Amino acid sequence: MDRGSAAISKKLIRLLNSAIIPCKGYDAQFCETLSALIGEARIVLMGEATHGTMEFYQARMALTRYLIQKKGFQAVAIEGDWTSVYPMHHYCQVLSDTQNSNCALREFKRFPTWMWKNTSMLNFLEKLRDYNSQIKNPASKVAIYGLDLYCLYEAISAVIAYLQKYYPEAAKEAIQRYHCFEPINQDPQQYAYLAKYQLKRTCGKEVMLQLVDTQRLAYQHINASAEEIEHQFYATQNARVVKNAENYYSSLFEPHHITWNIRDLHMIDTLQNIIAHIETVTRTPAKVIVWAHNSHIGDARATEMYEHQEINLGQLVRERFNTSAYLLGFSTAEGTVTAASTWGGPAYYKAIQLPIQGSYEWFFHELKAKNFIINLREQTPAIHLLSSPQLQRAIGVIYQPGTERLSHYYFSHLPNQFDALVHFDKTHAVIPLDTKPASRVSELPDTYPEGL
Asked: How many domains does the chain have?
């Protein structure tokens, strides 16, 4: 670092020390401070800098409970498969006989299971169920839904099950249409390969027709009960998942930005459908919280993603909801994280390397307060200096310390990316429920995509 850069760095550190709001953790004061910053926003996106850090889960859970209790937020939408999250929804709304929060997480069988099947989630689900148990009106109970689309075959099964129960003749036609995916042993990647090399025709026409028919059948009853409306919503969203998942998998061997954009467009459409569903049932403006990685909820236009033709959920929420949206990012400098070394590999407790000098995390690590909130909407000299592009770290379900700069850092303009950011300087790995990861401090570099 030359003298000029060193002087600017010292100035920024000095200004940041005055601009940040120190916090002890995720206590009541932490929640009150962020609630005041969020103001009247109805769509609150909460990020994470890794997919395996306990403090990020705990902080989001604490703030979510606060917003539910104090500001009447009605739903949580998470970066998880639609069908996998639905048992959680049933458990929290006391719609099933499931008495165990562990059982509510049973459908998380696909890598990476620890992302939602972890000890932190158990406590959150139990508290949300207790909260909902005190509410008599079913429409007023807090919901939890999944935003993701990887569950192609699970969604197909759900659509058929719904139709067989309510519209048996239509179910026969759905089975015939979805038969287009056979025989590929329920392997979406095999479908992608065959579609890429034109060894099998794609099923885009069939899944679109089935979505239209499912919507027509589900919503033909105008005076449906709240329970029926919920079944209709789940069924039509499953049909939509099938359509978008088919598009995603048939594009799997195309340039990365194509599948990334398909996925995040599905997320924003799902979020809007959740909002519309809540407003239909409650007849009030919906207030929804989203949990997803920083790379999804931070505005892509403020990062390198924009140069790579990638859009994301945060950008789309800002474009569609404007001032009704609030984007909250998270960061850390050191500690441990639960992550794999290769895609589909076992989970490890890994040591997080200290930040690269000059990165946002490096500046935050140099501050006096180790845990803090920074309001990025403030027009102050510190925020002005943060607007200069700096490196920012993103760890997904894979952590590759041997190639950290290449694998986990990208340039961003932080104040344009988020409305506020929470920094926990030293963090700890989330604890999976179904396995006990070994510690892994150093390893050879990997080259698989980041898995965000």
From this structure: 2
- The encoded tokens of residue 147 equal 């935003």
Q: In this structure, is residue 55 part of a structural domain?
A: yes
User: Taking a C-beta distance cutoff of 8 angstroms, is the pair 387, 438 a contact?
Assistant: no
Q: Are residues 23 and 29 in contact, defined by beta-carbon separation less than 8 angstroms?
A: yes
Do residue 340 and residue 277 come from a single domain?
no
First to last CA, the chain: 31
Largest CA distance in the chain: 76
DSSP-based helix, strand, coil % in the chain, nearest 5: 50, 15, 30
Does residue 137 lie within any of the structural domains? no
Tell me the per-residue pLDDT of 100-159, one tens digit each, with 9 for 90 and over: 889 999 999 999 999 999 999 999 999 999 999 999 998 899 999 999 999 999 999 999
Q: Quick check: is 97 in a domain?
A: no
User: Which domain does 250 fall in, by range?
Assistant: 149-284
- Indicate the pTM of the whole model: 0.94
Which among 433, 426, 418 has a CA at the least distance from the CA of 45? 418
Report the CATH number at residue 12: 3.40.1660.10
CA distance linking residue 76 with residue 99, whole number of Å: 21
